[in-house]
Amino acid sequence: HYGNASSSYPVANTYYVQALANSITGNDLSAASDMTLTFNGDIDNNNDCLDNRNWYYGLDGGGSAQDIDFLSTVLHETLHGLGFLTLVNVNTGSRFNNRDDIFIRMLEDHSEGKTWQQMSNAERVDSASDDPDLHWIGGNVQADIGVLTAGTNQGHVRMHAPNPINSGSSVSHFSNSVSPFELMQPYLNQPAHSIGLAKALLQDIGWTTSIGDKPIIADIGHVEIINSSPTTIDFALLDNDTDIIAVNITASSSNTNIIENSGITFIGNQRLRQINITPISGASGTVNITLTASDGSNSNNQTFQINVVSNLTPSIAINHPSTGDTILTDSQSLSASANDAEDGDISSNIIWSSSIDGVLASGATIAASLSDGNHIITASITDSSSNTETITINITINALSDNDNDGLNNSTEILLGTDPFDSDSDDDYLSDFEEVNRDGNASDYNVGIDSDPNNPDTDGDGYQDGFDANPLSADPPEGNIPLLPYWATGILIALLLLTVRKKN
């Protein structure tokens, strides 16, 4: 968004990325997304992509040297979307719409003694590869420069300016020489535990940030545990401006008759930690656990609920079909699995039902013949202690309909191997129905009587079935007079009749 002279932007006549413009004005200036992030799922377990490097999806930064930390990558790309980038074309030096963006006002080339705003296009191209003289001169970054042991020059943080220029990374990153490692360096060869100096740079370009960020405890949600043994729960902990190792966490119980404070302990000191909860043996009921994280300057709380029981509720999952599926066959396979902490695998006891057809059957996998329509499928399981759990999906059965209007219902087309959305699956100018109904029974393909709906030339004589006088016999050319398809014959007859009427 372009801030003109009469706008409320900190610097007039300057471009700001959409997210930053929204923040400055206090309005959503566009219905479009502020940013779109796309990540390559083909990286995982793929020898042909990045030398078989994989995403590491953990929150603890504990991936191997061969892994790419997914959380750090998401944070890195999000910071670009928040404005950690220039809109200048670094290969030509040209500004976006020939106007400044806020980022270039704080890019200085020390050897030239100019900011990028003051340079010509040619000077910006030269500066984009002028390492180590391309600097960031924003005051907030300068104030925090003392955290760095390398990667500075003339009292400023160096920006990424390799020679030759890398159009995908030059200028819009801190220099790769910066140390300790910063999240906004061009190469993420290790996980980052905070956004580091990027926070100060965002302040320089116009973002309002908090002073002394509170730790962030990820939502844990409702938990059910058994009262006869300890339970371990994973949770994530983040802090934008404090080393995560220095963040201390404590917990308190709302009902010490069920869970004593001493029965709550913690494991780990990184981003991903564990809470170990030991209830009083035999006690049961609902308890609120409050976690408090402190970084020495600020603290934050997170409360979650625990239901302590003597017998755990079983878990159940529908494996097939998936919610939202449309099924075109008149028979369907439904499968699910169920497990119970005390009883083990109890999938064979699953009871299935439909909102249209009622109770169907029981078992881990069942065969059903559901009516056409929109079904809510319910799978239910009950354990030996009468604890019940259910799960539902929504599916559509469209077996008896004829989507392509060729006279064959969808289920029959699936059975025949034809396309239920194409009336002439093999493009031979005979409809699928016409091909399989030569024997008067359109429900199957009778070899030697019906023409093949999946083969445009059933007899292999070089004539498509719709133009073949005898599509089941490879007649010699002189005995095989091509025929018009039925639809074309009908049109021809109508035209001839119309001509006769005109003459009369």
**Number of separate helices:** 8
Structural class: alpha+beta
Average pLDDT: 91
User: Biggest sheet, in brief?
Assistant: 5 strands, antiparallel
Uncertain regions spanning at least 5 consecutive residues: none
* Gyration radius over CA: 35 Å
Q: Could you say how many structural domains there are in total?
A: 4
- Strand coverage percent: 25-35%
Enumerate the strands of the largest sheet in spatial order, edge to edge or round the barrel.
7-6-8-10-9
Shape: flat
Number of strands: 27
Q: In angstroms, what separates the terminal alpha carbons? A: 74 Å
Helix content: 10-25%
Could you please describe the fold and organization of this structure?
The longest helix has 18 residues. With 504 residues, the protein is α+β, with helices and mostly antiparallel strands. It has a five-stranded antiparallel beta sheet with strand order 7-6-8-10-9, with no helix packed on it. The protein folds into four domains: 204 residues, no CATH class; 94 residues, Immunoglobulin-like (Sandwich); 83 residues, Immunoglobulin-like (Sandwich), CATH 2.60.40; 83 residues, no CATH class. The N and C termini lie far apart (74 Å). The chain has eight helices and 27 strands.
Keywords:
504 residues; alpha+beta; Immunoglobulin-like; 4 domains; 5-stranded mixed beta sheet; 8 helices; 14% helix
